User: Fold this.
Amino acid sequence: MISLSAVSRHFGTGPSRVAAVDQVDLNIPGGEIFGVIGYSGAGKSTLIRLLNGLERPTAGRVIVNGTDIGAASERALRQVRPKIGMIFQHFNLLWSRSVRGNIALPMEIAGLPKDEIRRRTEELIGLVGLEGRGDHWPSQLSGGQKQRVGIARALANQPDVLLCDEATSALDPETTDQILDLLAGINRRLGLTIVLITHEMHVVRRICSSVAVMEAGRVIETGPVAQVFTAPREPVTQRFIGQIPAPEPKSLSIRLPDEAAQRLLAIAASPDLGLSLKNLTREGNGFRGEVLIRPLALADGVAQLRAAGIDVSEG
Ligand SMILES: Nc1ncnc2c1ncn2[C@@H]1O[C@H](COP(=O)(O)OP(=O)(O)OP(=O)(O)O)[C@@H](O)[C@H]1O
Assistant:
């Protein structure tokens, strides 16, 4: 659906030249929720603007839904842009238009018949949970409600791709989760591809299936979220993981015969499971005690312990 090959975007010339995006390769399959995470200045905004042609690449190719966005004429871009919706950190609503008016705007620009605009606007108001607020003005809405209008407006022309530029960064944690859940629901119901950029690990963990980590214009690590954040290779990725408090390890009781002791020590030495032993004491011809294990590694850990002849039980 989206593919970037060797894409760079430079600003300025000579010694003041900045490589905002530097030799980026990315493939985002259709229907996915793909996160791009990085600290300020990493190049995330520039990358997302390359996807809808607001920025042109200095080098490389940007293909979105079969269109070479980087090389497309302004006229061709005007045709494909309605199929690439975008939502923003500060919502970017028109204050002089009601909720309904804001949502209808892209359809008015596209020249849709009035009846159809009216029907779709009501449908979108329902989709984003703003029933009864169609006549409200943006100034009468909370941040979360404003973003719901932004989402409805972005979906007005039935896009294939939704770009989210720090869409929850101005919202409190509870509203953030509501908006993220709304986006996940829309992804499931409409099957559209979502690309979101963020500096918050929580956002990626909550709704993304895959992620790219950016630093200094480059994608330094990418893959399925579980994989990238379970075994991070890069220091920046490890810093993002530090934003989330580590989940409490789970405690399990174990009993084992003497001959399984060596196997237990080998399992405990494996860094993937993050397993530690507690209160190990002698009992008959063996040992009893506890293991602490990371929740994510629980199923794998229990399977390995049992295969090694160790009796495992809860509590
Ligand atoms: N139009 C521009 N002219 C010159 N430099 C720019 C321009 N746009 C971005 N840059 C530079 O490119 C680099 C990447 O910026 P970008 O805004 O893409 O990063 P970001 O990860 O989105 O950061 P933030 O979250 O702070 O917006 C920065 O060093 C920035 O100063």
Remarks:
- The longest strand covers residues 18-28.
